[in-house]
Amino acid sequence: MVMDNRSHTRARPVRTVERIAAVAQSVRENPRTSTRHRAQTMSVALL
Where do the record's region annotations for Disordered lie (predicted)? Predict the structure, then answer.
């Protein structure tokens, strides 16, 4: 019998050049926005 070995680890973050650039642009536009709020509005996970 073959069984899938599923790991119960946390999903790894995806750091693409586009996403990094979008966050950098967001910081330039409004540097006073909190990290938590920025992550929520941009759908980015805080790790």
Answer: 26-47
pLDDT at 27: 95
pLDDT of 1 strictly over 70: no
Residue located via tokens 């941009």: 42
Region for residue 46 given its phi and psi (left: phi exceeds 0; alpha: psi -120 to 50; beta: otherwise)? beta
CA 7 to mean position of chain CA atoms: 21
3-state secondary structure of 22: helix
Query: Which 8-state DSSP code applies to residue 28?
Result: H
